[in-house]
Write a structure and sequence with these properties.
- By secondary structure, the chain is α/β, with parallel strands linked by helices.
- The chain folds into three domains: about 180 residues, 3-Layer(aba) Sandwich (Rossmann fold), CATH 3.40.50; about 70 residues, N-(1-d-carboxylethyl)-l-norvaline Dehydrogenase, domain 2 (Orthogonal Bundle); about 40 residues.
- About 50% of the residues lie in helices and about 10% in strands.
- It contains 13 helices and eight strands.
- The longest helix has 23 residues.
- The two termini are about 20 Å apart.
- The model has no long low-confidence stretch (mean pLDDT about 95).
- Pathway: Lipid metabolism; butanoate metabolism.
- One of its GO terms (cellular component) is cytoplasm.
- Pfam families: 3HCDH, 3HCDH_N.
């Protein structure tokens, strides 16, 4: 078993640490300062409470899970003896590279250095490393403790043993890792997600339907099917001849937007950024954001429980 350290105690960092601890691993996590650490501790306790209330484990087990996580603002202490480090700091190439230079002074040459980046290319991230062969991307999805997928992406110099160790660790964490064979912007999940988001924006901007109906078209149709059959398997069930015929006439009519749509540009320009600002495509005033977030979290937990029943 690897000795795991997580760098960054924000939303993704503390969720990754929580997932590892839930699956029986001791993990150390680095927070920048006392305020970051306090927020991480609160986030972990809230998530543990929700998971216990939904029957994923008992309250006694919840305390044991929390005790497996050590949080510190002393980087040297956090990475001392680590064999696998997952970085989850802000999405800035220069910031990450600067931090890696510092890390390389503190970790062994055989310690795997992984990034949770959602889009930066591994070869770019590893460009200044003395040991780029031990660098890899492990892209967890938010919320990292509930979404099984992790995209594993190697750079041009990433070694086979690094890939194998990443896959082994993620399987120990009971994730569903997939290997992305080529460096490509957005990896796989975000390319699929943003293809759908682009078409949704185009439909809204063209006045084809209201936002509620565009969202309903997903949640009450393909959203019900996709947890079992992804897009390629769905095509097999629908008949490849049918899907080819539709692709041949529909693809040319789909959105080819090269940047954000008019409505999204206007909302962002007005400071309407979604839940965090209280308004976006939807009005998030009052407790609505918390209610929808809780509903989504409970649904994800039901999926996880179903996964565990299936083995």
């Amino acid at each position: 078993m690897e000795t795991l350290s997580v760098i960054g105690s924000g939303t993704m960092g503390h969720s990754i640490a929580l997932n590892a601890a839930w699956r029986g691993m001791d993990v150390r996590m680095y927070g920048t300062n006392e305020e970051d650490i306090r927020r991480a501790e609160q986030g972990i306790l809230q998530k543990l409470r929700t998971m216990a209330e939904n029957g994923l484990f008992s309250m006694e087990e919840s305390a044991a899970i929390r005790n497996r996580i050590i949080i510190s603002d002393q980087l040297e202490t956090v990475v001392d003896g680590a064999t696998f480090v997952i970085e989850a700091i802000p999405e800035n190439l220069e910031l990450k590279q600067t931090f890696y230079a510092r890390l390389e002074e503190l970790i062994g040459t055989d310690t795997v250095l992984a990034s949770n980046t959602s889009g930066l290319q591994p070869s770019d991230l590893a460009a200044g490393l003395r040991h780029p062969e031990r660098f890899i991307v492990t892209h967890f999805w938010n919320p990292a403790h509930l979404i099984p997928l992790v995209e594993v992406v190697g750079g041009k110099q990433t070694s086979d043993s690094t890939r194998e160790r990443a896959m082994d660790l993620l399987q120990e964490m009971e994730k569903k890792p997939i290997v992305v064979k080529q460096e490509i912007q957005g990896f796989i999940g975000n390319r699929l997600q943003y293809a759908l988001f682009r078409e949704a924006q185009a439909l809204l901007d063209a006045g084809v339907a209201d936002k509620e109906d565009i969202d309903a078209a997903v949640t009450y149709s393909i959203g019900r099917r996709l947890p079992v059959t992804g897009p390629l398997m769905s095509a097999d069930f629908g008949g490849l001849d049918v899907f080819k015929s539709i692709s041949d006439y529909l693809f040319s009519d789909l959105s080819t937007l090269q940047s954000s749509g008019e409505t999204l540009d206007s909302l962002v320009g007005s400071g309407k950024l979604g839940v965090k600002s209280g308004e976006g495509f939807y009005d998030w005033s009052g407790s609505r954001g918390e209610e929808v977030s809780a509903e989504r979290e409970n649904m994800l937990i039901r999926f996880l429980k179903d996964d565990e029943r299936k083995g």
